[in-house]
Amino acid sequence: xxxxxxxxxxxxxxxxxxxxxxxxxxxxxxxxxxxxxxxxxxxxxxxxxxxxxxxxxxxxxxxxxxxxxxxxxxxxxxxxxxxxxxxxxxxxxxxxxxxxxxxxxxxxxxxxxxxxxxxxxxxxxxxxxxxxxxxxxxxxxxxxxxxxxxxxxxxxxxxxxxxxxxxxxxxxxxxxxxxxxxxxxxxxxxxxxxxxxxxxxxxxxxxxxxxxxxxxxxxxxxxxxxxxxxxxxxxxxxx
Length: 239
Ligand SMILES: [Zn+2]
Ligand SMILES: [Zn+2]
Description:
alpha/beta, 2 domains, two-stranded antiparallel ribbon, 9 helices, 15% strand, binds zinc ion
């Protein structure tokens, strides 16, 4: 019922003009087709970490030598102009009006580059209780539940918790980020049974080095998850 309501609202929304969040022209969506054409050229990505990779190469060199803790990754755009500005507005400036559009683009990428029908449950990268109280929402959850509705797949914010606030990751390399995140995520004891043998998709807004989603993936695997996929809006190209 709820998913039918969402689909009806989307059909209606497509017929009404709205302002493109990037170029400000009045178009049929919050990200117009001109901006997509100009700023999102087709990009071959490593299916292990979603970083740009040479055409035809399934895995980048780093994933071959140091595979991440998740099995497969999908990113919609590079974390570069203008997408990083869009994500920052969504994340730091209460731009929840962008959530539907961003979720639609993430869904399209997931349907193209992954097999969402094989996923049993969708989990957002959690915020700490303090950060959640400051921000008022978890941007990853805003994407995760929308994907859950559209895919008919349960989205769960109670399966992984952030045990502690981690100092800012900005400027840290992968090894420093991994140290920073050690023990930061946990699956609460009674929830472990819901993960045994399950295939889980972890949703976040940005992947920089993959250290955060790897830390979540380790907690999920420790609790018995069989496979962990990473679905993100943007991927830092050079990391
Ligand atoms: Zn535009
Ligand atoms: Zn890779």
